[in-house]
Amino acid sequence: MDSFNFGSLRQYIPTELPWTSHTSMNPDDEDDLQVDDAQERQSDTFTLTMTEPAPIADGPKSNLDLVAECDNFPYYQTNPKLFLAHVNYYYGLYVDAYPDTKLGFVLPSIAKVLTGLPDWKLDENRRRLTLVGGSNEAERTAILAATTKAMQATNYFQVLSKWRNELYPVYGPQRELLFSVERAASPLFGIITYGCHMTAYTRMSASSGSDKSETKIWVARRAATKQTYGGMLDNTVAGGMATGESPLESMIRECAEEASLAEDVVRRGIKPVGTVTYFHIRDQRAGGETGLLQPECEYVYDLELPEGIVPAPCDDEVAGFELKTVEEVKEAMRNGEFKPNCAMVLLDFFVRHGFLTAENDEGYIEIVARLHRKFEFPTP
Predict the structure, then answer these.
(1) CA distance 146 to 164
(2) What DSSP string runs through 39-50?
């Protein structure tokens, strides 16, 4: 990468990020949209003042609150002004070979860091950040590696402090792999990331005087030392999917690494049950800078474990496991104890297993719809 200009990158590092305080995380809250009255009278263009995201206030959270906390990028159908203000604030991410295919959203403060680098082009008028270097996947990946390594070397971006040495894929309009990028850097480019999440459950034997078994769910506690969402509750097993991994093989690997579950046990019982998709704006619990964009697709699995098989930590990412009743899990979710996307996966589990229905939650239709958000960026 002889063409990479580290000096230029350091020169264009901004001195501060444009965050301001805010009072609401609700994507439908028009208070987050700052509109100049004169501008409004003259055109349909609106100006967005970015507000720092934060979790919904502590206290009992409804299931719809849990969805809104994770899937918190605004919807056009709900608030078109706020949606368009967001979209017009960011820079679209493109590669030169596909000028009509947007791959992600990039914050202005991040896009301008790459100003003047030979492999990148910043178009202020069209608000586009384009990777112009590289004619194939390998060359583009090499440019991304050099760019992100230089960004890490400046020690400016907190999100890069926990370098993972793991590559995440970015796909093109024909489902082809365009390039891969370091996992820790993926939120800087606002690309879709992929993971696999599994809910393991056990049907406990009927108690004396009852002929019904009770479903209990294995819940993981994240290690307090984790950079992201430390100490919060998690799905039984979950992890990110690196370039080249299939969802099932990734899930089986994570089961061994995080929960000490034998491969034959997992392969025999695991069931692929769909995906959960959402568009998240990261708050302080995610680690690193707030306001970074994370559209994400989770491949979802169920695993019924017989009584006697107990997940156990196998690495330093999980503090322990606990077998909870459905009502205990719901209570922990209401109390905000779960990592946001893990609450989404559990809501999907509750819908599929009949624990969440139209009869017991008036937000049922919206909850189910928002568990499966459609992306405007290409997917595999």
Answers:
(1) 15
(2) HHHH-S------
Query: Do residues 160 and 184 lie in contact, with contact meaning Cβ atoms separated by under 8 Å?
Result: yes
What's the CA gap between 54 and 284, in Å, rounded?
Answer: 7
CA 301 to CA 368: how far, in whole Å?
Answer: 17
End-to-end, the C-alpha distance of the chain in Å comes to 28
- CA-based nearest residue to 326, from 248, 213, 237: 213
pLDDT tens-place string over residues 26-41: 333 333 333 333 333 2
Tell me if residue 117 falls in helix, strand or coil: coil
Partnered with residue 93 across adjacent β-strands are 104, 129
The C-alpha atoms of residue 80 and residue 69 are separated, in whole angstroms, by: 19
- The pLDDT tens digits for 102-147 are 999 999 999 999 988 989 999 999 999 999 999 999 999 999 999 9
The CATH architecture that domain 6-58+73-189 belongs to is 2-Layer Sandwich (3.30)
Q: Judge whether 311 and 261 are in contact, CB under 8 Å.
A: yes
Topology given in CATH for the domain delimited by 193-370: Nucleoside Triphosphate Pyrophosphohydrolase (3.90.79)
Q: How far is CA 211 from the centre of its chain?
A: 41
pTM: predicted TM-score of the whole model, two decimal places: 0.86
Cα 166 off chain centre by = 16
